[in-house]
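Incident log, support desk, overnight shift.

02:14 A customer reports that sequence design results differ from what the structure should imply. Their input is reproduced verbatim below. On-call engineer (initials T.W.) acknowledged and began investigating.
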């Protein structure tokens, strides 16, 4: 069976279609964003049971390229690319961690953390970038002129693009806001040979520039305005359902910045429902930092209006975005999923991150935002303690070591670091060591 997909305008009054191999991001007729649409009739030639068995048989095996958590579902994601043009680091297949200790502290019966940061470049962005770069390689092999791939980034997108583009031997151009990404995130594209442009602006400013650059040169834009990336990211919802033996959790909480992730999450669940693999949808929660919360503000007025803002500085730098490109997609998704939007202050997100770390995790600040929103929704009674809850952890905590050091050393202004844990400096003296241990164990009683 030759499965197929194409680009379709998201405007229901337009719905113009384009090839997935056109370097296009918005509809030429009405200007709305595009999305990848699949031929459901073709996909429905297999039963739900057949799809489940096929995906389970491929999952984390070594048959190229289907061992990848993304390409194991190739027919649903991007069937139009030839296997020889796929660039994959066997992304996906990330741990769905049972947060047993934290769930007890929060009073939940089931809490799981989908650890998307346990990936090649340390974030969920790998899931979308494998699809976009593979599509680009296919276009180039078919004779299309593409000089380079480019993105604006708060850190994680640039790391993923640089790594996958390097593997494909395609030049990559990275537009970063100067002094607004962590050292770990900055060094990733540098080591992978990308041209890194550190621009004295914020993410929204970088995004404005990179779009204009791509208009003037045959450079393919790799931000989530490019809907091909979202096809890879939607495998998060498919994979976590697969990990639950194809049962759908009750609530899923995901951090939101440029808002492609909440849209992709919903798309995966809707596709599973359309093809009969699941019979219910979860409730989706989008968590934003209070200092970068345009979607939350829109949620407060029931999405009647949406206004971009100037994002303020936040510890959750990866979602420090005030003008998210995918806000219409996100709103449409939340309305379909009885969705909630929550926000977390800097103190709330920092302490939620540190609290989870004390139970054995090592979270990024964006996951701290999601965990803080979870705590608030439990207290408000908007999440039933009996519900099965999944928090999407979007990046590895090792990318944000500086934030954690500052937290535990009480160097973050305006935050009471209630979970701090500084090392104890001692002389080379056994008696002092023993007396310190005695004090420690007494306090633990």
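02:41 Re-run completed on a clean worker. Output:
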């Amino acid at each position: 069976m030759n499965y197929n997909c194409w680009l379709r305008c998201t405007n229901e009054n337009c719905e113009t279609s384009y090839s997935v191999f056109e370097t296009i991001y918005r509809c030429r007729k009405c200007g709305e964003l595009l999305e990848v649409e699949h031929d459901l009739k073709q996909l429905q030639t297999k039963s739900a049971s057949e799809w489940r068995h096929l995906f389970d048989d491929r999952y984390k095996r070594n048959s190229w390229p289907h061992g990848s958590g993304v390409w194991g579902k190739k027919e649903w994601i991007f069937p139009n690319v030839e296997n020889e043009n796929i660039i994959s680091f066997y992304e996906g297949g990330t741990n769905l961690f049972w947060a047993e200790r934290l769930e007890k502290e929060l009073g939940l019966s089931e809490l799981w953390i989908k650890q998307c940061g346990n990936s090649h470049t340390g974030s969920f962005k790998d899931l979308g970038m494998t699809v976009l770069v593979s599509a680009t390689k296919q276009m180039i092999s078919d004779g299309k002129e593409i000089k380079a791939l480019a993105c604006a980034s708060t850190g994680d997108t640039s790391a993923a693009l640089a790594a996958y583009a390097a593997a494909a031997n395609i030049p990559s151009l990275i537009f970063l806001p100067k002094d607004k990404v962590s050292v770990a995130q900055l060094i990733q594209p540098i080591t992978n040979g990308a041209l890194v442009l550190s621009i004295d602006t914020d993410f929204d400013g970088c995004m404005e520039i990179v779009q204009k650059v791509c208009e003037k040169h045959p450079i393919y834009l790799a931000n989530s305005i490019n809907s091909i990336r979202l096809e890879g990211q939607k495998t998060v919802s498919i994979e976590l359902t697969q990990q639950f033996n194809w049962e759908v959790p009750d609530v899923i909480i995901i951090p939101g910045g440029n808002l492609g992730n909440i849209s992709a999450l919903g798309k995966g669940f809707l596709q599973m429902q359309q093809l009969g693999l699941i019979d219910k949808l979860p409730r989706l929660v989008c968590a934003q930092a209070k200092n970068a919360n345009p979607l939350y503000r829109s949620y407060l007025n029931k999405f009647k209006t949406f206004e971009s803002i100037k994002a303020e500085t936040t510890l959750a730098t990866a979602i420090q975005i005030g003008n998210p490109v995918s806000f219409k997609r996100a709103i449409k998704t939340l309305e379909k999923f009885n969705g909630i939007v929550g926000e977390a202050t800097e103190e709330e997100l920092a302490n939620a991150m540190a609290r989870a770390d004390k139970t054995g995790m090592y979270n990024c600040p964006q996951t701290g935002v999601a965990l803080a929103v979870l705590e608030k929704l439990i207290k408000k009674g908007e999440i039933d303690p009996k519900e099965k809850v999944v928090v999407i952890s979007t990046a590895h905590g090792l990318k944000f070591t500086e934030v954690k050091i500052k937290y535990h050393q009480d160097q973050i202004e305006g935050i009471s670091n209630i979970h701090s844990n500084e090392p104890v400096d001692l002389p080379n003296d056994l008696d002092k060591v023993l007396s310190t241990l005695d004090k420690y164990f007494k306090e633990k009683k």
